[in-house]
Design brief:
CATH topology: Alpha-Beta Plaits
Order of helices and strands: EHEEHEHH
Helix content: 40-55%
Number of helices: 4
CATH class: Alpha Beta
CATH architecture: 2-Layer Sandwich
Pfam family, one: BLUF
Radius of gyration: 14 Å
GO molecular function: blue light photoreceptor activity; FAD binding
InterPro entries: Acylphosphatase-like_dom_sf, BLUF_domain
Organism: Algibacter luteus
Number of domains: 1
Domain BLUF: 2-93
Number of strands: 4
Distance between the termini: 35 Å
Structural class: alpha+beta
Strand content: 25-35%
Shape: globular
Largest sheet: 4 strands, antiparallel
């Protein structure tokens, strides 16, 4: 059974671009091993991440994140079983939105996803759109 978890958190420290790249590389490496897709966004000291994949792998990954010292004030905003992945085809699964062009690419992808008219997908899309709205 597939599952998605979306969470937001505060960074425990002011993250440099190099630190963010290391976090991204580690997340991508770990999630590829477990066939977890999704998106990771860092903005103004906050993270938003969507994880999707096998229920057991997503739950285990989220539990590890909860105890990661780089995060504080973690709030799980979505925790649902899903029939299909939302971010499976997006930029090899994970991305950090750090420029207007990347925001525009993500925004175009989210618009395309909305056409599916899936309630859970639209809920996740709305969370991501709200989180990144100040970038554009």
């Amino acid at each position: 059974m597939l599952k998605t978890i979306c969470y937001i958190s505060d960074s425990n420290e002011s993250e440099s671009l190099e630190n963010i790249k290391r976090i991204y590389a580690k997340a991508k490496q770990n999630n590829l091993k477990r066939n977890i897709t999704g998106i990771l966004i860092y903005q103004n000291g906050n993270f938003l991440q969507v994880l999707e994949g096998d229920e057991e792998h997503v739950d285990t990954t989220y539990e590890k994140i909860k105890f990661d010292s780089r995060h504080k004030n973690i709030i799980k905003v979505i925790n649902n079983k899903i029939e299909q992945r939302i971010f499976e085809d997006y930029n090899f699964g994970f991305s950090i939105v750090k420029s207007s062009s990347e925001f525009n690419q993500l925004n175009e992808y989210l618009k395309w996803l909305k056409q599916a008219d899936n309630k859970i997908a639209n809920k996740v899309i709305s969370m991501v759109e709200n989180f990144i709205s100040v970038i554009g």
